[in-house]
Amino acid sequence: MEIENNCIKRVYSGDIKNGTVIIPDSITKIGDRAFEECEKLISINISNSITEIGNHAFKDCVNLKSIKLPDNITEISVFAFKGCINLESITIPETVTRIRDYAFKKCEKLKSITIPNNVTEIGDSAFQDCKNLKSIKIPDNVTVIEQNTFRHCTSLTNITIPYNVTEIRECAFSGCTSLKSVNPLDNIIYIGNYAFYNCFNLQVIIISDSVEYIGYCAFRFCKSLRSIKIPDSVIKIWGGAFANCTELRTLTITDSETEFENNVFAGCKNLKNITIPDDVEINVNDFSGLWLDSEAEDSEDSEDFEYFY
To answer: First CA to last CA across the chain, in angstroms?
Structure first.
């Protein structure tokens, strides 16, 4: 084990006994990549003397099943536990305020995790590819759901988005194929490109009157949606936003000023009931998807995102 200035710089295979490592009481920091790819590591208790865990610290510890974090850390660092494919449980201390980019990406056996209310930021791809994650509570102090945060969390069945969240960014819930319900999107202003792409079991989405922008393919392949109401607040909906929502049957548009790009409803073959304001002048390009069959096939596992123009 390499130690410098009370920081663990690197742990080697020979330091791991019976699947764990005893960390000296004098240690105050676990350095960047200190345990990276330690395949013999199964469990570890980190003492409260440690106040910082570096980037990539436990990345690709493929046999790590459990870890006790110290009470004094304030963030989960970039790539800290990425690729810990057998990590089943972890408790995040109340002192943590940030979960940074890719922190738990591809922790495939992680079923649930409690995020303290003090957390104000959850980074890009923080829980991406956590395929067994069934439930998670986003803290009330979070204001943005970053891009790819829960992408391909294929066991996630429902999600509650706090009132303080104003943006759901690109691919935030893309590929959450078990997701059935999302609470009303109160206070959301921006729904990013592909935000709910391929959430093909999503049955209900309530777009509140705070939403102003709905991005490219935001709800494409949400094949269980049956009705959509576009509120007055929406300024623009980008191409393909509701494309291939094959069970969509009812559409209500409440404002004649909303701008629609091409193919917003392409491939919505069962859309029969459309309510629009009397003063709307329909541009065939804006609503082309109501009458034009999409050439795109269902692509539940596809990563080949297609832009509509």
So the answer is: 56
